[in-house]
Amino acid sequence: MTEKQAQPAANQPLTEQRTVVRTQGVKKLYTMGSIEVHALRGVDLEIYSGEYMSIMGPSGSGKSTLFNMVGGLDKPSEGKVYIDEVDVAQLDAYELAWLRCRKIGYIFQSFNLIPVMTALENVTLPMVFAGLSSDDSRDKGMDLLEKVGLKDRHSHKPFELSGGQQQRVAVARALANDPAVVLADEPTGNLDLGTGTEIIDLLKSMNEVSGVTVISATHDHKMLSVSDRVVWIKDGQIENIKLRAELDIEVASVEGED
Amino acid sequence: MANQDIQVAGGREIVLPLSKAVEISIRSLKIRFGRSLITTSGIILAIAFLMSVWSSSDIVSSLRDANKTDINLLLQKNGVATSDGTGSVSAESAKRTMEEQSKQTWLISLSLLVCVVGIANAMLMSVTERFREIGTMKCLGALDSFIIKLFLLESTFQGLAGTISGITIGLLMTVVLATFDYGQFVFEHFPLTAVLRSAGAAIVAGTSLSLIGAMLPAYKAAKMEPVEAMRLEA
Questions:
Q1: Is the confidence metric ipTM above 0.85 for this complex?
Q2: Chain-chain contact of A102 with B226 (C-beta, under 8 angstroms)
Q3: Under the phi-then-psi rule, with left for phi > 0, alpha for psi from -120 to 50, and beta for the rest, what region is B147?
């Protein structure tokens, strides 16, 4: 049944969706002493607006590097990265900060909430950077906390929250300025199975309800079932891109390999 | 078109209420209260020393200006050159005063220098400790200037608190010691304006010292790429 449902959704991106992130022949070269490390060897990738995409690959595959490029956190040594049709390499520090603030929401493996701030203040921090008034940001922050189910915990500091709750706050924070893209770097990496599934479901429902593009780097196979597309990276190159329809058949064998 | 979008918004300031930066830096200080106390105590000691030197010279010169016989006697007993009956200060004692003054300047400069190094060290530690926090803020759209503001404010508050306590301690000590030497004359001829002026100078000195100490660490924090902050495993 899931196969049939997935079919139209999986085809959708290819037909009429707008591209939100595009990479063209992206290469990244790190020089460590006298050794040159090719983290990426030419990646062409298009990510469409409103899709849920997972980037998978073993550590050292260049997955994180690609992820950072797509999120405007790193600049390629060669090739171009376009976010919302803007060439990231052309932006100065000010414009980059603007892009990170308004267009991209980040979710980290280790939550990265600011320890001295309450849940609400953490959620409203990006709004402060965006210049929203404190009343507006308070209202919006409470709405977001309600969406992630933590409204009654708005005055708690991060250390008073469980890992799953912290990650929920981080999800709310990522959505603070209604970004075009949410980047989740191993969002379930520090969580147990149940809480991890909760976060994945939360991300998926945000993706469906508000239509925000979700890009996540992961090696959590639970991610596969909610992703519209999955990209496998190996040795700095795209090994494989699969739609969910093709995935459902193969999940079993992928898990079997592990 | 999206590029234009950014250009337009770039022209508009990302308004960053200073109050928010003030709030964050005060809270960071509170949460690391123990360590900020150690840093602050460095400033307290240096400024207390500075203030005691300045205020005791204020008091002595005020007493000397009073030019009363019994005060002059006390001053001479404490080795201070006075304009005695003949109205001239002996060349030898003038030379001694000069030497003492240059020694004092040297000591003060040294203590202040040590203080700046201490502040810079503490702020560098604070930056290193907060790599992740800074990186996160940059990911959320914080500008370099905001990070710099954060650290400079933090250091300024530390500097102000330390300087004010230092001035109080230094002044109290000087007054107590001077009372031993000169008795009630200290209060009769208390050089209020001169001491206030010295206190003002000490506040400026203490605060600017902690600002100077924080500059390099703040710059280092602001120039950090967000990726670097993410890469560090806690």
A1: no
A2: no
A3: alpha
